[in-house]
Amino acid sequence: MVSITGDMSPLHPDRNLALELVRATEAASIRAVPFIGRGDKLAADAAAVDAMRAFFTTVNFDGVIVIGEGEKDEAPMLFNGEKVGNGRGPQCDVAVDPIDGTSLTAAGRQNALSVIAVSDRGTMLDASSVFYMDKLVTGPAGVGVVDIRLPIGENIRLLSKALGKPIDEMVVSVLNRPRHEQLIADIRAAGAGTRLMSDGDVAGGINAARHNARTDMCVGVGGSPEGIVTACAIKALGGHIQGRLWPRDDVEKQKGADAGLKTDGYVYEADELVTGDNTIFVATGVTDGQLVAGVRREGDFIYSESVVLRGRSGTLRRITSEHLTSKWL
User: Fold this and answer.
1) CA separation (Å) from 74 to 41, 80, 94, 104, 155?
2) CA-based angle 289:316:195, to the nearest 5?
3) What is the DSSP letter of 312?
4) pLDDT in tens, 134-191
5) Are 233 and 243 in contact (CB under 8 A)?
6) DSSP three-state, residue 276
7) Which of 13, 135, 139, 289 has its CA 20 to 30 A from that of 146?
8) Full-prediction pTM beyond 0.85?
């Protein structure tokens, strides 16, 4: 197996996979812009999928989508199991979310992203058979301190102490869903504040793990695919992530078990969600958010902002790009 750290292939020794993948997230974000605030999340997602897949064909890697748009019969492109890249270079597991936050995009709200995560072949947990996952994400201060099995109030107190931060200054991100009513009440009862997210829990998890972030913890039930994608990013940030699969019914629970997943409350640690630290996470803003700015057009230029996180080196790089508008018409 060729490592994804940069030794691509004898034919392309100087190509950097992370920077190549940014081109695909940039394309997806730019193509989604005409649909921002238009109320049609399916059209926005379709445009982003088309653009991302087109750019994948130019990237030097041999990728297999572990987490994509769904099964092949539901998703004609970027489906689970689809091969992407030009077949040369490193063999990778790939997770894609052409728009994390399609509802945010359709409504013109903040924090919509285009996301790709990769790791070495065979290292990414395929949790696609169970749609939801209960997650706990913090920054480095939470490593070995908090635990998803503990009550949320106890985790807030433990993290508060580790951070040296008063509890009444702690902020916890949670998806604003009916299933989280009690969780939200418990967070507030513990004395912390909440930041309720309408969508986009990948950005929520990453923001909670970043240095000097505005939130200290991200908790609650969101998408299982988003949990794996977030884990790839957390590897680069040195943060803490745990997940428990959350089947919606007995049928889905059995489906997960048949796929080899542990669906009885088992806690997946970071190295079980994504094995090792040889991960790359790239994201480009579709709309403005805490992590990155959204795409904007000014006359002859389109501006985009992206982040690249690499687990092996523990780095976060920001990339601001100027694109000629004429090339995208």
Assistant:
1) 16, 10, 18, 22, 39
2) 35
3) T
4) 999 999 999 999 999 999 999 999 999 999 999 999 999 999 999 999 999 999 999 9
5) no
6) coil
7) 289
8) yes
End-to-end CA distance of the chain: 40
Question: What's the token pair of residue 234?
Answer: 């957390």
Report d(CA 180, CA 127) in Å as an integer: 22
Which residues contact residue 38 at a Cβ distance below 8 angstroms, ignoring those fewer than 6 apart? 44, 106
Token readout for 277 is 């630290």
* SS3 labels along 1-59: CCCCCCCCCCCCCCCCHHHHHHHHHHHHHHHHHHHCCCCCHHHHHHHHHHHHHHHHCCC
- What are the pLDDT digits (tens) for 71-87? 765 667 888 899 999 88
Closest to 227 (Cα-Cα) out of 273, 265, 184, 267: 273
Distances (CA, A) of 87 to 24, 59, 83, 94, 243: 16, 9, 8, 13, 32
Dist CA 321 CA 314 (whole Å): 23
Of the listed ranges 74-88, 189-203, 232-246, the one predicted with least confidence: 74-88
